[in-house]
Design brief:
Radius of gyration: 20 Å
Largest sheet: 6 strands, antiparallel
GO molecular function: DNA-binding transcription factor activity; sequence-specific DNA binding
Strand order of the largest sheet: 1-2-9-4-7-10
Distance between the termini: 41 Å
InterPro entries: Homeodomain-like_sf, HTH_AraC, Tscrpt_reg_HTH_AraC_N
Protein name: AraC family transcriptional regulator
Number of helices: 12
Number of strands: 10
CATH architecture of the largest domain: Sandwich
Helix content: 40-55%
Pfam families: AraC_N, HTH_18
CATH topology of the largest domain: Jelly Rolls
Organism: Solimonas terrae
Structural class: alpha+beta
Number of domains: 3
Length: 311
C-alpha cells in the first residue's frame, strides 16, 4: 500500500469523528475565546476569524483541533496543528501563536487537555513502552498526525460533558487513554522522556519549575544548575534544546507575560507591574515589553481591551 493511499484512507476514517467533535465544541463555545468545562483539565477554544501573531505562554497540554488551523512559532520553528494533527506541549513555553484558518462560517475549534508529568509517569509504570527512546534531547513542543483511536478517546471525553453523572468515573479513564495514545504515537518518546525520573528532559523541567516560581528574583545560572543536578554549561545547552532560549531569556519572557497579565487583569500601571515582576528600570521594561509584544505597555493593553487581538 502506497504512503499516499494510506494517508487518504486515514483521512477518510477521521472525517466522521472530526465532524462530531467540531459540532460538540461549537455547541459549547457560543463566543470566541477560551471556555472552561465541567471537566477541570479540559478547555475549549473558538476563533471566528484569523488572528495576528500573539505571544503567549503555553503550559503542558495536548491540543486537538476539530476545525481550522493554527501555527505556533518557537525560535523561528513553525509547528502547525489542524484537523489532521495534534499539538503536544510537554513543558511550559513562551511561544507566538496565530490562527491561520478560520471564518464565521467555519470557525477554528480546538480542545486543550492539560498534561501532568506525574500522571504520564504513573501510566508508564503500568504499560509497556511501544516506541524506542529518542536520541538526545528534544523541543518541549511538537505536532503529530492524529489517529482514529486518539480521536475516539477524545470524543468519549467530550460526550461525558452531556452526562455529568458519569464523568467522575469515566472521565479519568478517557483521559488516561488519550495520554496512552499520545505516548505510543510517533513522537511519544518526547513526552515519556519528560516523565522519566532523572532524565535530561526531567531535569530541565525542574529548572523550569524554579524559574516559574521565582521569576521575579535575580537568579544565577548556577542556582538553576544545582536544581537540575547539572553543570552550568550542560544546563545552558539542554535548556536551549528544550525551550529554544537560554534560562535568563526564558525568565525575561515569564516576567513580561506576568506583567502583561497584571496590567490587563488587575489594572496595574506599567511601572507597578514592572516592579512586581522584578524589573528595577521602568525604561528597560518598556523597551523589552515593546520588543516582545509589538507596542509599549499602555498602548498594547488598550488594544487588548479593545478586542483587537481576540483569541
Amino acid at each position: 500500500m502506497s504512503t499516499a493511499f494510506a494517508a487518504a484512507t486515514d483521512d477518510a476514517l477521521l472525517a466522521a469523528p472530526r465532524t462530531e467533535l467540531a459540532a460538540r465544541i461549537a455547541r459549547l463555545t457560543p463566543a470566541d475565546g477560551m471556555h472552561e468545562t465541567a471537566l477541570a483539565p479540559l478547555q475549549l477554544l473558538r476563533a471566528s476569524s484569523t488572528t495576528q501573531c500573539a505571544p503567549a505562554v503555553y503550559d503542558p497540554a495536548i491540543c486537538v483541533v476539530a476545525q481550522g488551523r493554527k501555527h505556533v512559532l518557537l525560535d523561528g520553528e513553525r509547528y502547525v496543528y489542524d484537523a489532521l494533527h495534534y499539538l503536544v506541549v510537554s513543558v511550559t513555553l513562551p511561544v507566538v501563536g496565530q490562527v491561520i484558518d478560520a471564518s464565521p462560517e467555519k470557525p477554528y475549534l480546538c480542545l486543550r487537555l492539560s498534561v501532568n508529568p506525574q500522571d504520564i509517569g504513573a501510566l508508564m509504570l503500568e504499560t509497556d513502552s511501544r516506541t524506542g527512546p529518542g536520541t538526545g534531547i528534544d523541543r518541549g513542543l511538537y505536532s503529530a498526525r492524529s489517529t482514529a483511536p486518539l480521536l475516539d478517546a477524545v470524543l468519549r471525553l467530550m460526550r461525558l460533558l452531556d452526562t455529568p453523572q458519569d464523568a467522575p468515573v469515566l472521565a479519568p479513564l478517557a483521559i488516561r487513554e488519550i495520554y496512552y495514545r499520545v505516548l505510543i504515537g510517533e513522537l511519544g518518546h518526547r513526552l515519556r522522556e519528560l516523565a522519566t525520573a532523572d532524565s535530561r528532559a526531567e531535569r530541565i523541567h525542574r529548572a523550569i519549575r524554579v524559574l516559574r516560581t521565582r521569576y521575579s528574583e535575580a537568579l544565577r545560572v548556577d542556582e538553576l544548575a544545582d536544581a537540575a543536578c547539572m553543570s552550568a554549561s550542560a544546563l545552558h545547552h539542554h535548556f536551549k534544546a528544550v525551550t529554544a532560549m537560554s534560562p535568563l531569556q526564558y525568565q525575561k519572557q515569564l516576567r513580561l507575560h506576568e506583567a502583561r497579565r497584571l496590567m490587563l487583569s488587575l489594572g496595574l500601571e506599567a511601572n507597578a507591574a514592572a516592579h512586581r515582576v522584578g524589573y528595577e528600570s521602568a525604561s528597560q521594561f518598556s523597551r523589552e515589553y515593546k520588543r516582545l509584544f509589538g507596542a509599549p505597555p499602555r498602548q498594547e493593553i488598550d488594544r487588548l481591551r479593545g478586542g483587537e487581538l481576540a483569541a
